[in-house]
Structure formats: structure tokens, C-alpha cells
DNA sequence: CTGTTAGCGCATTCAT
DNA sequence: ATGAATGCGCTAACAG
């Protein structure tokens, strides 16, 4: 299976290999006449560029690494979709790796991407070590959705605090004063921001937060259901906020199991709007993170960085979320 | 940003570049003692293999192209997740491209993958031209989920006919004789198979299919809702089968809009189980395609093909679907 | 504007 | 078991 090379095209067109290279790929000098002749010759013999050779020679690549935690979670799928869309438009390719939130897998992936000589990586980081090792090797990094300590890399975030604050405020406005908050982690900026927004809304309205109402669980629908069960067993509340789509699933399952009417008996709201939330009855009040747009922003930012269009200073892009009020939230009982 | 090369490692370890190559990457001869010394030297100076150089030299690549229609559809996301999982385990990378079901985008992607010299591609084909051009250039192709004419390539399919037949039979068993069937396309083996299964179940039970009950729509929830509306406006039926998850969304929306009780007034069932279907009330009776497993099979098959472990004859893998009975189907009114 | 020369980093001969 | 030499296909310098 020998494929034609620039040499072959050169012979066919009666020019030199470098002229072929210039005419076809590089925007170097080449007279329109020659350009056309070379193009024709290339088509005739079915020539197709070899990215490996080009990358090796010019030490650049148009492959971008994308490192996410769970492609089956619509949040990550949407994020990846937005990234891919933007990369494709710019003639870049997306190498997608699922690290399952596992630090070891994440590190393995980073090494692979290093080996591929990708110019940039977009990552929803599990460990600060991952962005660091990449940057230490000259790879541009954009952290998506969350921030771990001071990585120094560009970052694209949803304004979690503002979104959670608005959502909580909506409930307070409906008369709720005892609101449960279901959350998995607060080490990352994501969870921390949402919790901060929850607290801020209370403070804005002169309400104390009963710390018992903040229920810590793990990133798993079954665990979230169990935690919700314990929460509802032990305390009184008129509303629950779930900090993300997975936890919302668990909370909803538990409320349904009890056959509690939503929103009459209890209101339910979730951060991170995903499709099923508008299909259930009643549909859930949520905060839409504009996840696809978040992904697009990551890609745009990374590409600008790669092209050297940005000042050295790290950039922080915040995408404003939007409150979507639906039927699952109503006046406090 | 100059990264260390085999030369540098060789100097550091006091051996020749070829020995480094053998010790590190290739399983050629190298004494354990030297192997270790080279390994240590490599770690010390932070050496990392250059895939581009390796690929160029050995004309193989460990990147696999994956061409799908819509990453935001959980079906494709699950498929991709299954593929990625298997590829990662085998130390391959996934280059994921979304073609949006557009033949032009699909063809562009194929050319890119050709340029990347990937040894194989997994595609949910839009056009037969795509698998063809890839194969003509020596790239192994596995078609996922559907088959377009005679492509000659390996293919991994859900047994659509069997699944739809079982689903329809379930309804007939409940006493339904007038069942609507909502479908978008029947040119691909996917839709054709599901429709065939629907017919076969009727035939099995000596029932005529009223052709009017087969409602053709387009791959879009809004269109599906509109088609469902027309269908319910014009004909009597006691159940509806939606041929995929997107159409199910439209059908459900329309039934809810009418405030018809499910399953009392009408039963609803869907092909292609996705998460929201078990969250709505009542939960939907569906056919689970084992989509992730479908993806895994695609990757396994492709890798086996690449490694030359398979006989020349094209292979057709069928993954048996599974009927999941939930609350949305009940006795005919 | 075009051709010539050189070499990117690696894996593979072929010697030894 | 190891080393020297070669070239994968391409593009960046340089010269013309």
C-alpha cells in the first residue's frame, strides 16, 4: 500500500517537491499557473498529505487533546461537542480521552498527548499535576469547567456562584427558608462556587443557613438518592437544590419513591440543565450552564493562545449561566 | 522548546540511539541491564517518544478515527464511550469527529483521517462513499449501527428486527391491535430493520398492519411531535412505538400536551433506551441496544482486523438487544 | 517565484 | 546483544 508523495506529484506536474509543498499546503510563493497545475496533478494521482511527516518536520500538529471525566454524562458530552465543533471549523482534530476522574488515567493520557506533540490540551482536571506536566513541556492548556489551585493556565468557567445564588434566590422568593443542598464535592471551584452562591443568597436575604441542610454525598446517582433519603428522614425542609445533573437524578428518584408531590410537598431544583429535566413531570427548574458554548469558548481560547494572539497573562473566561424556571418549584408549603 | 530525543538518551546512557529505541519502544534485543540503564536515563532527562516520527518511520499509527453523527445524542455518546474505553485499554487513541449527518462533512473527515494515516476508522456512515474511499486507501473500516448497501466492510449492528419484533409482540400480548409506528428513515438498515420487526410481529400473530399507522417523520423531536399530533388526530390507536430516542421525545411531548394518561389512554414504547426514559413517570418501556457494548465491539473488531487476526471475509457482529418493560405500556383500552 | 539541500526523530536493515 | 548507516515524507533555509 504505497501512497503517492510530494515527489510523485512533483514528477507528474513537472516541478520540484518544494514547489508542490508550497502550492498545496503552505501559503508560500507559487504562481497561480503552477498552483493549478500542481493541484491537478495531485488530484490525478490521488495524493494526500501525510500529517506525520508534516508534523515531524514543522514541529506543529493540528491535533488537540481533550481530557474529560465521563463522556456518558451529558455535561461532558456537550462540552466535547462544543469543543469539537469549534476545532473542526478551524481544521483541527480532537483526540478525546476519558479519564473517568482517575488521576492515574489522567496522567497516562497527558503522557500520550505529550508523545503526540499536540500544541494544546483542554482538560477538566482531576489533579493539578496534569495541567502542570503539560505546561512544563510547552503544551498550552485550557482548564474547562473547574480550577484546581493555582495552575496558571487559562480557564473557562461557568459562573457557579452567580448561578447558584440566582437559583436559591428564586426559592427564597417563593417563601422557602429551609432549603436542602445536595452536593458532592467542594474542593473544586465548581462545587465550591455553587455552595458559595447558595450561602450568598441566604445572606442577601438575612437568612441563616442551617449547616445540617447541606448534605454531602458522592458523584453517583445511587449515593445521591441514599443521601437524600437520610436528609429527608432527619430534617424538615420545603425545597432541595441538587448541585449537578447526576445528584438531581438521585434526589428525584427518592422524592418519587416517597410519592411526594412536587412542588406541593417539596420543591426541587438543579444546577446543570440536561434534556431529561424538561421531560419529567413536572419539569425541573434548573440552571443552564450553556455547556456547548462553554466548550466552544475553551476551543476558541486555546486556538488563540496557540496562534500567539493572546498576551502572556492567563485568561479567565466566565460564561454566565441562566435560570430556567419550570414546574418543579412552587410556593413553600 | 527543544525536547530530548533518543540521541540525548543515548548519550546519557552511554549507548547508541538504536539501542535506546530497542530498549524503550520496540521489543527487540536488549540486555536487561542495558534496558534498565536506558530507562533510567530517559526518566532522568524527561524523554518522551515522538509519535509523529515513529509513525512516519514505521508507517503505522495508534490513532483511530471515529466518525459519528451527533455527540449530543446519548446514543452516539455511549457508542463513542464504548469505543474509547476499548481503544484506551489497547493503547490506541480516539480521534473523534462529528459529521452532523452531513455527507460533505463526513467526506472532509475521511480525508483528514487519511492524511493522519490512521490504520482504521469506525463510522456510523452517512454515505457509502465514505467507507469506500477509506478502504480504497488501505484503511480498515468498521461500520457501526448501520449498513449502507454493500460496503464490504466489517459491521457491528444491533439486531433491530429482533428488538422491534419483541417490543411489538409485547404490545400485541397486551391486547393492542392498532399500534402506531413513528419512524424517521428506512433507507438504512437501522430503520428498515425496526420496521421489519414491527411487521414481523404482526404477521406472527396473524394481524394486518394498517399502513396508515406507520408515520414517517424526520430525525428531530419537534418534527416527531408534529407527526405524532397528525397521527393521533387522524386515526385511532391504543399504542405508539417510537423508532428511536429522539422520536420518543416528540411522541411523549405530544401525548403530554393532550394530557392523555399513559398507559391507560395510550401506551408508549421506544426503541433505544436512554437515561431519561426511566426518569419520566410512568417510565418508558424500551429496547436497550447495549450501546456501550456495541461501541466496545466495534473497537475490538477493528483492532483485531488491524492486527491481522481475522480472516479476509467481512465480519458481521450482531448485538442482541433487550426488552425492558416499564410502566408506559399496559393493557389495550 | 522556483529548485537544491538538509534534516525533523525514529526504527530498521545490516554488520559486528 | 549492540552500533552504524539509512531514509520514512515533508518543509525550512538558502540560493538563484
Automatic annotation (TrEMBL), chains A, B:
Residues 1-21 are annotated as: Disordered. The keyword DNA-binding applies. Keywords: DNA-binding, Transcription, Transcription regulation. Residues 4-58 form the HTH lacI-type domain. GO terms for molecular function: DNA-binding transcription factor activity; transcription cis-regulatory region binding. InterPro entries: HTH_LacI (IPR000843), LacI/GalR-like_sensor (IPR046335), Lambda_DNA-bd_dom_sf (IPR010982), Peripla_BP_I (IPR028082). This is LacI family transcriptional regulator. It comes from Kribbella italica. The lineage of its organism: Bacteria, Bacillati, Actinomycetota, Actinomycetes, Propionibacteriales.
Amino acid at each position: 500500500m504505497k501512497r503517492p508523495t510530494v515527489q510523485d506529484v512533483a514528477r507528474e506536474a513537472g516541478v520540484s517537491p518544494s514547489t508542490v509543498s508550497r502550492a498545496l499546503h503552505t501559503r508560500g510563493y507559487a504562481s497561480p499557473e503552477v498552483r493549478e497545475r500542481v493541484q491537478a496533478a495531485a488530484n490525478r494521482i490521488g495524493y494526500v498529505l501525510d500529517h506525520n511527516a508534516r508534523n515531524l518536520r514543522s514541529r506543529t500538529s493540528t491535533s488537540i487533546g481533550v481530557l474529560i471525566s465521563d463522556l456518558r454524562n451529558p455535561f461532558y458530552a456537550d462540552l466535547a461537542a462544543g469543543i469539537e465543533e469549534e476545532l473542526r471549523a478551524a481544521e483541527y482534530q480532537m483526540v478525546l480521552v476519558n479519564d473517568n476522574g482517575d488521576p492515574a488515567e489522567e496522567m497516562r493520557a497527558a503522557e500520550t498527548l505529550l508523545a503526540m506533540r499536540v500544541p494544546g490540551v483542554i482538560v477538566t482536571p482531576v489533579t493539578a499535576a496534569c495541567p502542570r506536566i503539560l505546561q512544563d513541556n510547552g503544551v498550552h492548556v485550557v482548564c474547562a469547567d473547574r480550577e484546581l489551585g493555582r495552575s496558571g493556565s487559562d480557564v473557562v468557567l461557568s459562573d457557579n456562584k452567580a448561578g447558584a445564588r440566582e437559583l436559591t434566590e428564586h426559592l427564597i422568593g417563593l417563601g422557602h427558608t429551609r432549603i436542602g443542598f445536595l452536593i458532592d464535592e467542594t474542593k473544586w471551584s465548581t462545587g465550591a462556587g455553587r455552595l458559595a452562591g447558595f450561602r450568598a443568597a441566604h445572606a442577601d436575604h438575612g437568612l441563616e443557613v442551617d449547616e445540617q441542610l447541606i448534605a454531602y454525598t458522592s458523584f453517583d446517582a445511587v449515593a445521591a438518592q441514599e443521601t437524600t433519603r437520610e436528609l429527608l428522614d432527619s430534617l424538615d425542609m420545603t425545597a432541595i437544590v441538587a448541585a449537578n445533573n447526576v445528584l438531581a437524578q438521585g434526589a428525584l428518584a427518592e422524592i418519587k419513591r416517597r410519592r411526594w408531590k412536587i412542588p406541593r410537598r417539596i420543591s426541587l431544583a438543579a444546577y446543570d440543565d440536561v434534556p431529561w429535566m424538561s421531560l419529567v413531570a413536572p419539569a425541573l427548574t434548573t440552571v443552564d450552564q450553556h455547556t456547548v458554548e462553554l466548550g466552544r469558548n475553551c476551543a476558541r481560547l486555546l486556538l488563540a493562545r496557540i496562534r500567539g494572539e493572546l498576551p502572556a497573562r492567563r485568561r479567565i473566561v466566565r460564561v454566565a449561566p441562566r435560570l430556567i424556571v419550570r414546574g418543579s418549584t412552587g410556593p413553600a408549603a
